[in-house]
Structures are given as structure tokens and as C-alpha cells.
């Protein structure tokens, strides 16, 4: 006996159930997928996009690593470490004119950008720089290393005694 397209009611119902199941499954997958995308996009939104610069406080090593007479420019931190006997200080190497990095010279510091000159203590001796180079607080951290705090400017000539 040949089958007609609408053979009996049971087959019709079976076909509808299959279609219904498929639609239910598709909607569930769609809802689940959109929930996942929503959670991911919220997490991406919550995560701060700000990039933070270097910390203001950092250690540079043990005092023995800086013998008397040391005058070392640390470009990554934009400071110059000076040690004279037991006295130690950290002087900024950021030019107070427009922010170029000054280099230690025989007479103090020299800026390659517009020719500002500073003496050994960072005082302006020539050029367009409006202010002396700042000095930063130097201390000994609990692990025995020298700690520089670029968040604390101190008056020039204030040395840390190692
Ligand atoms: S940035 Fe140093 S003199 Fe201009």
C-alpha cells in the first residue's frame, strides 16, 4: 500500500514534535551562546584598559653596589644615583624644561634637547630650564636594599646616610 503525504495522524504529530524539538534546541543554543557572549563582553568591559606606569617606589640594589664616587644614570627610572662616602642621593634626570632625559656631564648634567645645563646638585646653570632637577627620597628597605621614592621630592642637598 502506497503512503500518502498525510498518511496518518501519528506520523503528523511525530513530525511536529521533531520540528518543535529542533526549534527548542536551536533557541537554547542561541540563548546559551548569547549569554556566553554577554558574560565575556561584560568581563572585557569591567577589566580596566588603563596602563599604569612604573611604580614610584622601587629598589635599586644593595648599598655595596654603589661604591663611593658613584654617579650612575639609571635611564629606565630616569634618576641619577650619586654616592659620596656614606652620603647617597637620587636626582631626577628629567629635564625641567620639556622633559628630555639629561645626561651626567663633567660639570653636572646636560640636556641634549635645548641645551639646559645643571650643576652636580641639579641647579640650573644655563639654558631654558625653569627649575632645578628634583631630588627624591632615598631610604633603606627592610630587605637591605636602597629604596627610591619618586613620589617624595626632598630639598636638594638632603642626603641619605648609608
Ligand atoms: S628639554 Fe631640556 S632644555 Fe629643553
Description:
With 162 residues, the protein is an alpha+beta fold. It has two domains: 8-51; 57-161, 3-layer Sandwich (Rieske Iron-sulfur Protein). It contains one helix and eleven strands; from the N terminus they run αβββββββββββ. It has one helix spanning 9-46, and strands at residues 57-61, 71-74, 79-84, 87-92, 103-105, 108-110, 117-118, 124-126, 135-140, 146-154, 160-161. It is elongated. The termini are far apart. Bound molecules: FE2/S2 (inorganic) cluster (FES). FE2/S2 (inorganic) cluster binds at residues 95, 97-98, 100, 111, 113-116, 127-129. FE2/S2 (inorganic) cluster (FES) binds at residues 95, 97-98, 100, 111, 113-116, 127-129.
In short:
This protein has 162 residues and is an alpha+beta fold. 23% of the residues lie in helices and 30% in strands.
Write the layout of secondary structure elements.
Elements: H1 9-46, E1 57-61, E2 71-74, E3 79-84, E4 87-92, E5 103-105, E6 108-110, E7 117-118, E8 124-126, E9 135-140, E10 146-154, E11 160-161
Antiparallel strand pairs: 1-10, 2-3, 3-4, 4-9, 4-11, 5-6, 6-7, 7-8, 9-10
The protein binds FE2/S2 (inorganic) cluster.
Mean pLDDT: 89
Tally of distinct domains: 2
Structural class: alpha+beta
Small molecules bound: FE2/S2 (inorganic) cluster
Distance between the termini: 107 Å
